[in-house]
């Protein structure tokens, strides 16, 4: 938010701002989904719904997960939420008590640590390993940090902010470790459709997911529906009454109109999603190619989500600046907005920046050209 404010200030000074800070697809919601929302309004479907979500939507979510991952999810194991963020909150509130510890691979989407703190629990960070060609999850490093107070491990895959798709073995080992130790896994797979190559392994493919997994996904990214506030939480049916109790007292139900639109989204056609993902693959390739031309920037090809998290350690050393100073300089001199890695909890990625490529290819090229020229000026 601080950097968005700075970007606004730069725009007010007359700069043409190119923001690589965006966390949502740039396309409007696809027309057949919008039409279903309008139909719901016109039919007067505007009251409260069941807290858990309308049955057609829960069935559509279960069908999606079963077709994709062979998960065997039943519609009564699904809770519809007001965005994935609320699903995270409900899941954490059900499991965590004050003083409990939550293990979070770092860098991470900031809500995990913030929500843990709101609930009086303590985030414990495990850095992802920077290999020079990307990031890896070291399950033995996770294991080393477990204590008798650890009640939850967060696994966000594909990963924000690094774009990493964790390998199947690491995912399987983590679920295995959690079940052996009786620890919940909060699996946030909101970017599961943004996978460009390699195989994505969902936690729901593990035979024993019901023992430990609280699964979070949603409509926001896949269908470009961030403002509709529609997420989902899936867990073993024995947990559902507690999760529903929390949901009922926090938000009553997800927006009725969005739920109807959400059914249309999942029922398809899926062609617009496939086209969008293909477009993002091309944008990623442009972004990585342009980044690799900038001296001192170590980059890599992320396999998923729509972010890249290059390392600027060499560059900032050569410039005698911090990453924050460089980011600020780029905003005010060239109108190019990047997110410094230090905004993510625990500062594990402090020598990196997060760049989103959810913008048109010509804007990516133009933003990267300005970044390169400014770096060359400064060096
Ligand atoms: N989880 C991750 C990893 C995200 O990146 C985001 C949004 O940026 C969310 C959850 C929140 O999604 P929603 O808008 O559905 O609440």
Provide a descriptive summary of the structure in words.
- The chain is an alpha/beta fold.
- The protein has 14 helices and 14 strands.
- The protein has helices at 2-12, 31-42, 55-69, 84-95, 111-118, 139-144, 168-181, 209-212, 240-250, 256-267, 271-291, 313-319, 323-334, 361-378; strands at residues 18-19, 78-81, 101-106, 122-127, 129-130, 135-136, 150-156, 184-188, 213-218, 231-234, 307-308, 336-337, 339-340, 353-356.
- The strands form four sheets. A seven-stranded mixed sheet has the order 2-10-9-8-7-3-4, with helices on both faces.
- Strand 7, helix 7 (168-181) and strand 8 (184-188) form a beta-alpha-beta unit.
- The longest helix has 21 residues, at 271-291.
- The two termini are 29 Å apart.
- The model has no long low-confidence stretch (mean pLDDT 96).
- Residues 23, 83-85, 109, 156, 160, 188, 190, 218, 220, 226, 231 line the site of pyridoxal-5'-phosphate.
- Pyridoxal-5'-phosphate (PLP) binds next to helix 4.
Present the secondary structure layout:
Layout: H1 2-12, E1 18-19, H2 31-42, H3 55-69, E2 78-81, H4 84-95, E3 101-106, H5 111-118, E4 122-127, E5 129-130, E6 135-136, H6 139-144, E7 150-156, H7 168-181, E8 184-188, H8 209-212, E9 213-218, E10 231-234, H9 240-250, H10 256-267, H11 271-291, E11 307-308, H12 313-319, H13 323-334, E12 336-337, E13 339-340, E14 353-356, H14 361-378
Parallel strand pairs: 1-12, 3-4, 3-7, 7-8, 8-9
Antiparallel strand pairs: 2-10, 5-6, 9-10, 11-14, 13-14
Helix pairs in contact: 2-10, 3-10, 4-5, 4-9, 11-14
Bound molecules: pyridoxal-5'-phosphate (PLP).
């Amino acid at each position: 938010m601080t950097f968005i404010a700075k970007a606004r200030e730069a725009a007010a000074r007359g700069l043409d701002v190119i923001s690589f800070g965006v966390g949502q697809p740039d396309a409007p919601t696809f027309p057949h989904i919008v039409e279903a929302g309008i139909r719901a309004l016109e039919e007067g479907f505007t009251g409260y719904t069941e807290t858990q979500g309308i049955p057609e939507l829960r069935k559509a979510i279960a069908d999606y997960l079963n077709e994709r991952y062979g998960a065997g999810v039943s519609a009564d194991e699904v809770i519809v939420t007001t965005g994935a963020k609320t699903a995270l909150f409900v899941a954490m509130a059900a499991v965590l008590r004050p003083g409990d510890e939550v293990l979070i691979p770092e860098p991470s989407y900031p809500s995990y640590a913030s929500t843990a703190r709101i609930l009086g629990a303590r985030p414990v960070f495990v850095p992802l390993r920077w290999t020079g060609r990307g990031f890896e999850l070291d399950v033995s490093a996770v294991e080393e940090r477990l204590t008798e107070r650890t009640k939850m491990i967060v696994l966000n895959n594909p990963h924000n902010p690094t774009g990493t798709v964790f390998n199947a073995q690491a995912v399987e080992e983590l679920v295995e470790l959690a079940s052996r130790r009786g620890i919940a896994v909060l699996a946030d797979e909101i970017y599961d459709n943004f996978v460009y190559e390699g195989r994505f392994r969902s936690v729901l493919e593990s035979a024993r997911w019901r023992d430990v997994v609280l699964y979070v996904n949603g409509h926001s990214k896949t269908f470009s529906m961030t403002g509709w506030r529609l997420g989902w939480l899936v867990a073993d049916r024995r947990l559902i009454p507690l999760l529903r109790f929390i949901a009922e007292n926090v938000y009553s139900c997800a927006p009725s109109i969005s739920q109807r639109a959400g059914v249309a989204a999942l029922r398809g056609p899926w062609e617009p999603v496939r086209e969008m993902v293909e477009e993002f693959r091309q944008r990623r390739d442009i972004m990585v190619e342009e980044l690799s031309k900038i001296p001192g920037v170590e980059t890599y090809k992320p396999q998923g989500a729509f972010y890249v998290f290059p390392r600027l350690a060499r560059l900032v050393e050569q410039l005698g600046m911090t990453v924050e100073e460089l980011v600020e300089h780029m905003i005010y001199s060239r109108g190019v907005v990047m997110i410094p890695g230090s905004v993510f909890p625990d500062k594990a990625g402090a020598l990196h920046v997060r760049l989103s490529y959810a913008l048109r290819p010509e804007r990516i090229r133009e933003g990267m050209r300005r970044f390169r020229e400014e770096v060359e000026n400064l060096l």
